[in-house]
Amino acid sequence: MKQLVDILRDSHHLNANGYAALLSAPEGDATAYLRQQAQQVAVDSFGHGIFVRGLVEVTNVCRNDCLYCGIRRSNTHVERYTLTHDQVMQSCEAGYRLGFSTFVLQGGELPRDKAQWIEQLVADIKASWPECAITLSLGEWSYEVYKRWLEAGADRYLLRHETHNPAHYAMLHPANMSQQNRLQCLEALKELGYQVGTGIMVGSPGQTVDHLVEDIQYIERLKPHMIGLGPFVPHHDTPLAHHPTGSADLTTRLYAIFRLMFPKALIPSTTALNSIHPEGRLMGIRAGANVVMPNLSPAAVRDRYSLYDGKASTHAEAAEGINQLEQQLAPIGYHIDWGRGDAPNFCKNNSHNMNNL
Ligand code: 5AD
């Protein structure tokens, strides 16, 4: 098993059986070695700096109805909000003062006529803080809308594919959503020249090792700049409320596998991981993650952006708790890197649009 880890580290690739073996191995020396090698590769790439991204949850309104998600359209118990333009600007301002140089605007899928509103926000954020990066995480839109947002100043886009297996995708999403459309969105984002992030929920209902291997192979082909993975966590008001929470160990095992596949990718130690395990954030970093995304949203709306039960939104998970984050990192020899942390161009051979990143 350790030999597989060495092969993955040195060649950044395994065949399907190799990935399946790493995913199915019991926890033990080999999985410890996998995480340790991944952490070393991350240190070789980035030193001991952890990039921070300020997350602004702009809306919990959503036109979609994903079966796992607490803000799905048919959950009538959600108190819906959309921040005002000023509230978003103020959240970014607060983040800028704290030292953030990336703002992530994340939200449910707004009605299509709100594209213009986002475009204006992106333009105004870029005009106010031209040196900062803007990441959008707003779901599925048309090529034209993505283009307008890019031209307004957006730099990066996060859109998890959730699962590459069509039957599994259909288990997690309503019939009117198509996996093909999601993958086309990711292609469009790449082609346009965004730095692109994708990823999955680990332990989502019905997920098998074979599905995970498919996900790994898809990500291997897409070569995203960012890879976001968190455990599935049930939300009480969804059809998947009674499904068990995903495993923290399997989540960090996947961080380690992706780190060895992509030494320079931006891999966050996610809020979902930190929400299910008190040591989650550090476990992620010890498995090769190098990004943390504290919450910059106004405190009054944080509870309402509830994708799953028990979501951490205070202390080191909140932008005001940035000192706590620093205090968590210091004992393991890490510090916050306040830089933009753009993805290096490791997609050179994949698309001419990636050459100027
Ligand atoms: N558990 C964990 N992650 C979730 N997400 C949505 N609902 C849940 C849940 N119940 C994740 C999805 C989505 C991201 C914004 O949040 O992967 O892409």
Describe this structure in words.
With 357 residues, this protein is an alpha/beta fold. Helix content is 41%, strand content 12%. It has 14 helices and nine strands. The strands form two sheets. The chain has a six-stranded parallel β-sheet with strand order 2-3-4-5-6-7. The protein has a three-stranded parallel β-sheet with strand order 8-1-9, covered by helices on one side. The protein binds 5'-deoxyadenosine (5AD).
Give a brief rundown of this model:
By secondary structure, this protein is an alpha/beta fold.
Distance between the termini: 36 Å
* Rounded Rg: 19 Å
Q: Residue-averaged pLDDT, rounded?
A: 94
CATH superfamily: Aldolase class I
| Biggest sheet statistics | 6 strands, parallel
Q: How many structural units, i.e. domains?
A: 1
Task: Please indicate the percent range of residues in DSSP E strands (runs of 2 or more).
Answer: 5-15%
* CATH architecture assignment name: Alpha-Beta Barrel
Can you give keywords for this protein?
14 helices; about 350 residues; 9 strands; binds 5'-deoxyadenosine; 3-stranded parallel β-sheet; about 10% strand; alpha/beta; 6-stranded parallel β-sheet; TIM Barrel; disordered C terminus
